[in-house]
Amino acid sequence: MSFEQLLSTHIGRTIEVFLANEFFSGQLLSVNNGTFTINFVDSYSSTQLTILIQSVEYLRVLLIFP
Predict the structure, then answer these.
(1) Is the pTM of this model over 0.85?
(2) CATH superfamily of 3-60
(3) Where are the domains of the chain?
(4) Which of 8, 15, 35, 42 counts the highest number of beta carbons within 10 A?
């Protein structure tokens, strides 16, 4: 199973993404060829961000229970 296939099983979940100089936390929306898209909320609005998988240093899938 590739990283993309594994990540696609978590669509809809909240993830934390660590890049070399940035950190994002948001809902995983989609996984495509070498990229994935998250919806994150900054201080003003909700933003969709597409991230290259090869630029990810660390990724964590959060398990949030009601």
Answers:
(1) yes
(2) Ribosome maturation factor RimP, C-terminal domain (2.30.30.180)
(3) 3-60
(4) 15
